[in-house]
Design brief:
Helix 10 packs antiparallel against helix 11. The protein is built from 16 helices and 12 strands. It is elongated and about 110 Å long. The protein has helices spanning 9-12, 47-50, 68-73, 111-115, 140-147, 169-186, 189-195, 199-213, 217-236, 241-263, 274-297, 299-311, 317-331, 333-360, 379-429, 432-439, and strands at 2-8, 18-26, 32-40, 54-61, 78-82, 90-94, 103-109, 363-366, 371-374, 450-453, 460-464, 467-477. The chain starts with a strand and ends with a strand. It is 52% helix and 16% strand. By secondary structure, the chain is an alpha/beta fold. The longest helix has 51 residues, at 379-429. Strands 1, 2, 3, 4, 5, 6, 7, 10, 11 and 12 form a 10-stranded mixed sheet that branches. A two-stranded antiparallel ribbon has the order 8-9.
């Protein structure tokens, strides 16, 4: 059984009366841990609510200290005393003491070092100490790092660590003007019903959540800077940026025609059914012609859509990526339709072969008993089942080839959209501030901490039940 007291280093050599504030924690193995975080010189407890800290005790002059009854009467959990003869303070009283107290560890720490500990999943903007907010109850250093984090100003963001333009109300309004306009447009019921299932609307919701939390202001600044930079490049360097998207659409159409031409005949030596293959080719070529005609009709609109991608740079680079993902989904719509057609045909073929195979073998599936059992079919039933089974079996390779080809094309489209989504989310969620601090050695892992023994001129003791308990003094360093 032991007691741990975390105390700022400068308080250990403090020689003036003051109150101590912090938190108290009792671990599962009955180790009492006192976290002293702050002091005040007003001798009142009004600061505890604003700082989310409780009153722990005080530092008093040895001449004014009476006994433990005095501390209990003033709701103290800790009491230190100082004198002119000793260079440091001494522990005189603890409110909660284990039955079999063996030692007391007084651990001195530097607030700046402890604040720089990397705490995963912790947001100092919304910092509020609660018993449930501990990252790891078994690690005292993580708990201490949570407690010493600076309190944000109510209703404001961290102006020193966040965006420089958030410090000015005028610049803040100008920066948020495009977003307010987009928010008003999205709020329209008709527009909302159209874009509900688009990537741009999904990203808008995610962006609003991150912005409201205020935990990634640097990411938002970089996002908008990249968006404006790309917008200027599109409007100044590219003479006709809308032509680029039209050219890509026609290239995709020509490549699909080339792919269907490869499937005509015997691709890679496969013997496909001629009649079914010609039927597929005619259907898919007609579908591509319809899509090409549709693109020719909406070509003026598509040219202006690319300008919209540039204009979205005012909102941020991630909005441009989201809009680009929606455009890729629209341009690749015909490839998705081909995949759906071939998938349905492939599933019908697989299901038909599975059912007819049981009929050919003289079995059937009993729905009531949920099992396959033998059954006596009539001759005409077996005759028809054999004919259909043979037909589906010989047509299945042709269907399978088309399914594999267009499933691969669908997978490539999905992979492209997944890559865009990965970059879109990483730009907003990547901990840039933490990364920069790590590069500048501003953040430290918990493994970097060292606990050093501090030699004292005079050994410290604590009187407990007419016995002297040794007090070991340590100091945290990186």
């Amino acid at each position: 059984m032991s007691i741990k007291i975390f105390l700022p280093t400068n308080y250990f050599y403090l020689k003036r009366p003051c109150n101590l504030y912090g938190q108290l924690h009792i671990s599962d193995d009955n180790v009492v841990v006192y976290y002293v975080v702050d002091v005040d010189n007003n001798h009142n407890k009004s600061e505890t609510e604003s700082n989310n800290m409780r009153f722990l005790g005080a530092i008093r002059c040895s001449d004014s200290y009476a006994d433990s009854n005095y501390c209990s009467a003033h709701d103290m959990m800790l009491c230190f005393t100082y004198s002119n003869e000793s260079p440091n303070i001494s522990l005189m009283f603890t409110g909660i003491t284990p039955e079999n107290l063996k030692q007391i560890k007084l651990i001195l720490y530097d607030k700046q070092i402890v604040r720089s500990l990397v705490i995963k999943g912790y947001n100092t903007l919304n910092h509020c100490w609660t018993r449930e907010s501990h990252i790891n109850d078994e690690c005292d250093f993580y708990m201490l790092a949570q407690l010493v984090q600076p309190e944000p100003e109510s209703g404001t963001y961290r102006k020193s660590d966040g965006l420089w333009f958030y410090g000015s109300q005028t610049l803040c309004l100008l920066a948020n003007l495009p977003m307010q306009l987009f928010k008003y447009i999205v709020g329209n019921a008709f527009v909302n019903s159209i874009i509900t299932h688009t990537v741009i609307f999904k990203h808008y919701k995610e962006w609003q959540t991150i912005y409201a939390a205020g935990s990634r202001l640097t990411n938002i600044m970089i996002d908008r800077a990249l968006g404006i930079l790309l917008m200027l490049m599109l409007f100044t360097l590219a003479s006709h940026p809308g032509d680029f998207l039209i050219q890509i659409s026609h290239i995709i159409i020509s490549q699909l025609y080339s792919l269907l031409k490869v499937l005509e005949g015997s691709p890679i030596g496969l013997k496909l059914n001629i009649h079914l293959n010609n039927f597929f080719l005619d259907c898919f070529k007609y579908h591509i012609e319809l899509w090409s005609t549709f693109l020719d009709l909406i070509e003026p609109i598509v040219r202006q859509v690319f300008l919209a991608i540039g204009a979205f740079g005012c909102l941020g680079f991630t909005y441009q990526i989201a809009l680009l993902a929606d455009l890729i989904s629209i341009v690749g719509l015909h490839a998705h339709c081909f995949y759906v057609y071939t998938k349905v045909l492939h599933n019908v073929g697989v299901k038909g072969l599975t059912v007819l195979w049981q009929v050919v073998r003289g079995n059937r599936y009993n729905i009531l008993r949920n099992r396959i059992e033998a059954h006596n079919y009539m001759n005409r039933q077996l005759y028809l089942a054999t004919i259909f089974f043979s037909a589906i079996l010989f047509l299945f390779p042709t269907t399978l080839v088309y399914y594999i080809v267009f499933a691969t094309l669908k997978a490539l489209t999905f992979a492209t959209l997944a890559i865009l989504e990965f970059f879109r989310r990483k730009i907003l969620n990547f901990p840039i501030e933490m990364f920069l601090k790590c590069v500048k050695k501003g953040f430290n892992e918990i493994d970097c901490l060292r606990v050093l023994d501090i030699p004292l001129q005079k050994q410290l003791f604590f009187n407990h039940r007419n016995s002297k308990i040794l007090i070991f003094v340590y100091k945290l360093q990186v």
